[in-house]
Amino acid sequence: MTIKEVFVNGQAVARAGKTIISSQKIAVPSTLRGELKTKPITDQVFELVLEKPKAHVIGIIPKSIVTEHLILDVPLQDGKFVPVPEQDLLKIAVIERHNATNFSAVGIVKGFGMKRGAIAATVAHDSHNLVIVGTSDAEMKLAAERLIKAGGGVIAVNGTEVLAELPLEIAGLMTSRPFQEVGDTLEALNDALDVLEADRSFNPYLTMSFLCLPVIPNLKLTDSGLFDVKTFQHIAVQA
């Protein structure tokens, strides 16, 4: 289908593939703006304590929102799981961000291929909580804190550096920024994946957004914990 014209509020804004007006102010209710309401983001939020080095792991299937349910040997330090990028074993965290409850959870994910840094977003189907995937707790914490300050969005960080960030200040899901600015920022987010050496054969941001959806097989993570869709119940990360 070829779109000939686009109208907003009765006014033509694009015709024959070309923009007529570059931007248009959008009235956004104040109730849809503001900072995310989360629990305090302490170092302990990202800790994953295990009694033995065997765990249930979310396995990424490229270009699919279905995941594998893996049971793998994982390394521990002082009884805690620490991401091992060399083995493609990263942390994933989900933090409730609507009502400042105490709900959050940490799991293990395999398949992103990231060698460093962290990515995060508040687009996380269907509850749209704050989801973070990273190679270290410090980088995951930085990504979370930046998005909380921005009122939501998508971000990529490396060490203490923010590589790219798209604020989504409308409910943490949308923005009133001009489309060209949004497009440029999305390109910067994708370029950041090269710095992190993430697997770009699929869209890591889109894939991450579906890792919190507990109705799609096989293993997902919600703010209440790891969820086995096959048995339709929460399970421990410990295997």
Supply database-style keywords.
globular, 8-stranded mixed sheet, 32% strand, alpha+beta, 3 helices, 239 residues
What's the tally of helices? 3
Mean pLDDT across every amino acid position: 94
Largest beta-sheet characterization: 8 strands, mixed
The fraction of residues assigned to DSSP E strands is 25-35%
Distance between the termini: 50 Å
Query: Which stretches are poorly predicted, pLDDT < 50 over at least 5 residues?
Result: none
What coarse outline follows from CA principal-axis ratios?
Answer: globular
Quantity of strands, as a count: 16
Bin the helical content.
Answer: 10-25%
What pattern of helices and strands is seen along the backbone? Answer: EEEEEEEEEEEHEEHHEEE
Taking all Cα atoms into account, the compactness measure Rg is 19 Å
Please tell me about this protein's structure.
With 239 residues, the chain is an alpha+beta fold. An eight-stranded mixed β-sheet has the order 5-4-9-8-11-10-12-13. The chain has a three-stranded antiparallel β-sheet with strand order 1-2-3, with no helix packed on it. The chain has a three-stranded antiparallel β-sheet with strand order 14-15-16, with no helix packed on it. The protein is globular. 36% of the residues are buried.
